[in-house]
Each structure stands twice: as structure tokens, then as C-alpha cells.
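Extended Data, panel c. Modelled sequence:
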Amino acid sequence: YVVWVNDDYLDKGFHPDLLRYYLASYTSHTKELNFSWKVFQEKVNNELVGTLGNFVYRTLLFAHKNFGTVPDGDIDPEVFTNIEDARAAVIAAFNEYEFKRGIDAAMNLAAFGNAYFQSNEPWQLIKTDAPGAGKVVRNCIQIVKALAVLFEPVMPATASAAWAQVGMGTGLNSISYDEATSEIEVGQSMPKPAMLFAKIEDATIQEMEEILEERVSKAVKKKHITFEEFSELDIRIGTIVSAEPIKKSKKLLRLLVDLGENRDRQIVAGIAETHNPDDLVGRQVVVLANMQPVKLFGVESQGMILAGDTDGAILLVPEREVPAGTAVA
């Protein structure tokens, strides 16, 4: 489905970073992506609010309340290893345009941070071992710093907010990935943090789904046309002369179709998943011949093969064989 970014998204108060995250983390760039408000809500609430946002806020709020600055304490080798592994995975994935894989690696680091905070219980340590609690907190702040660096390409505004909340003075957009493993400076001021994300309520999603359903309903509603308008369509019977797959496309075939003209027409048809190219040669089909030419996967299509759509393409064929180029009226 289509979402009007201004009317259906920005004007409703959704932050651009949330949509950027959804689009980049939903699936591989080689697969088709469909927008679902329900999936959008689940990803925001479970991943951004529940994992990333929860870890960042609980870490920085505890640090601000109990220390006010970055406390002293060595960075655990386990923490450095997890940060370095995430950094390497993100770089490798983004270089291959596998954004989901990179985001998953960064989110796994946030999950590790949550587990580290929870298992070390700094809220208990602070009562009896303030230096020990400080060490745990510094390690968690180091993870937050790394997360800001790793998420910046996908959520620049949100990552910059996290960067500022760990007391970093320089802008994040000029920072390299190497900064993720550079130790956070002890004594650095820790301002009072703010939540990076807010939970999206069911009522909000219901409202957005109703808007989407209304738009889809309007989009699929067909208007009545006059006979004169129909007469402008150049619909003819064509005979398929050749058919072959198009490189890098699972759905498209390149067809040459005899339409009774001086030369065969090249037509790109989305029927590769339902029709074998060898079986198409010699078959007659119905063609919209005055369709505006368009390039698909670099191949110009000079018409449209007409078909029904029930669990795949159902080609329209004449009742009996007729001369190529016979008009449909």
C-alpha cells in the first residue's frame, strides 16, 4: 500500500526516523516491501521503544541521577568485543546494501546492553559498592555511545539526540565508525536524558488504518468511460514470436509480439512466475498497443499484454486463431 508521507505520516506527528527505520529494517533490499501500520507499530514498540530506547534511557537516567558525570571504571573485554563485532557487522552489511542485516547487528548490541545492565544490577551495587556500580554504568554508557554511531545512517536525528545525551560535544554526522570503540571520557558531564521514542497506541494505529483503507478504496474505484474514450484504446490480437527471461528479475519476461506491423513489438510482461517462456511461443494474446513506452529493468516495453489476476496472471486469448494485428472493438 502507498502511504502519503506528508498527509498520512508527518502531519500526524510521526518522526521521520521511525519510517526510515521501518523501511531499512523490514526486509532485504532485494525483496519487495509492503507497508503495514500494524507491523510499523510492532517494530517501533518492540524494537525501538522496548529494546533500544529502554536501554539508552535507563542507562543515562541512572548515570545522571547517581553520578552526574561519566564514572570511572575499566571497560570490560566482553563489552569491547560485542561493540567491535557489531561495528564490523554493520560496516560489512551496509557496504553490501544489506541494511536489515546491519540494523539487526546494531539492535543485537542494544539487547546485549539491556542484558548487561540487568545482570549486573547497578541499582543494587550503588548501595554497597559505588565504584562497582560506576564501572557497570561506564560500560553501559560506552554501549550507548556505540549505538549512536551505528544507528546514525538510519536514524540521524535520534542517534544525534542519544549522542548529545552522553555528553558528546561534537556533531555525530562527522564521526567515523571507529568512534564506537573509542573509550568514553571519564568525568564527562551527563545531562538529564529524555526518552528517544514513544509507544504508539492501538487507537492511533486504528485511525491510520482507517485513513489507509479510505485511500485504497478511492484508488481502486473505477469511473465510467464513454465509448469515445474506449475507442482511443488500440487493442489488438498479437502472436508471440519469442519469449525470454529478463536478467535480475523474477517476474518479468521479454516478449517479441507480431501485431501485424512491419516489425515485431518488444513487450515486457510480468508473467514469468506463471508462464514458461518456451510454452508462450506461437500463442496469441490480447495487447494494448498504444500504451506509453516505458523501461523496465532497462528493457523498453512497447505495449501491454492484457491478463486477469487470480493467483497469478491469466492470459486473455481469442476464441480461435486470427490474423496477427486483428483489432479488438
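The chain has two domains: 5-202, 227-315. This feature is highlighted in the accompanying rendering.
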